[in-house]
Amino acid sequence: MLDALHSRIADKRDDLVALTCDLVAIPTINPPGDAYVPCAKFLGERLRRRGFEIAYIRGTDTPGDSDRYPRMNVIARRQGSRPGPCVHFNSHIDVVAAGHGWTSDPFTPVVRDGRIYGRGTCDMKGGLAASVIAMEALIEAFPDLPGTLEISGTVDEESGGFGGVAHLAAQGLFSRPRVDHVIIPEPLNKDRICLGHRGVWWAEIETQGRIAHGSMPFLGDCGVRHMAAVLNAFETELFPALSERRTEMPIAPEGARRSTLNINSIHGGMEEDFDGLPSACVPDSCRMVIDRRFLIEEPIETVKAEVTGLLDRLATSRPDFRYRIRDLFEALPTMTERDAPVVLGVAEAIRSVLGKEPDYVISPGTYDQKHIARIGHLHDCIAYGPGILDLAHQPDEFVGIDDMVDSARVMAMAAHGLLTAGRA
Question: Most exposed residue of 251, 266, 355, 419, measured as fewest CB within 10 angstroms of its CB?
């Protein structure tokens, strides 16, 4: 019977390519949140025709939501012939800006040499399309399956996921008893199971000074120079300490198996939203956004304290040093147990479809599993999908067609196993 399922998916190869291309051609660029509504409607209408009940849920009053850029999510739900668990496939529909360096139009997908090129092919509309094809084939092959299948297209994952999965999780849509198992088709390679991710803390540090005429800087206090002292302390104290820390989490790539800190941005002095020359002023403020990725062995209180402690030491050693720090976002590391049902189900499907043992990895960056765990309190959740993570956000992004087909077969087989577990 499962051979018939795999044959159905193979027969849907052209449909899988076409669906991926159709999704990529909808430019759901975030920020600002373009084309969320038409993309959600496109996905919802397709699944409605396949017998799913469709709900469109706007992330009202979440960051970025407006009448011009509504944060529109779609959830498709199909209940089976008998009671049973719910398997949910969640994909984000937003993509990052194309950027420079493309050799073709990023939103006019190109099929060439067994690949589909275009923004979002890898991250993660190819995975979304593979999950849709997988579930359609599963329903066709086993119309009397017990339990429930859900497919969602959610927004804003690229900017934190607050208008998407976080908003839906707060409404109980990623919690038991509604949902039992979640698979997120992020691009982690078709033979890998991603158990979770490192932790993240974003914060804004502001160093404060005093404005004065630029020709007499001795009458003022330069906020940018104070920030330079922060940067120097980072370079001489914090970065060396972080580079020494290692984790037992199986994070890929290898370089991410340590603590890291990225300086996301620095803004000092006059704003640059004008033409012409700036006025001669000593900057009275400088702001820096930091992106700290931490390990499961590091308590978040310690992560924050090592930064504030460094700033406090500067306040006692550097004349007139004053600062403010503001939390922007945080999420704890998450790692699903290897013996969780969804892990075992996908692992068995990988063995059957690909004939090899799966690799178990942790993502260097967070994805929407963080909201399912912390808000939905649902921990039977993994990421599994086609595509190479290193290609995400790159020019000439692509996904392999064979990889999508194989991943669809894994997804369909895993869902079948989870829905029928313990049944004769």
Answer: 355
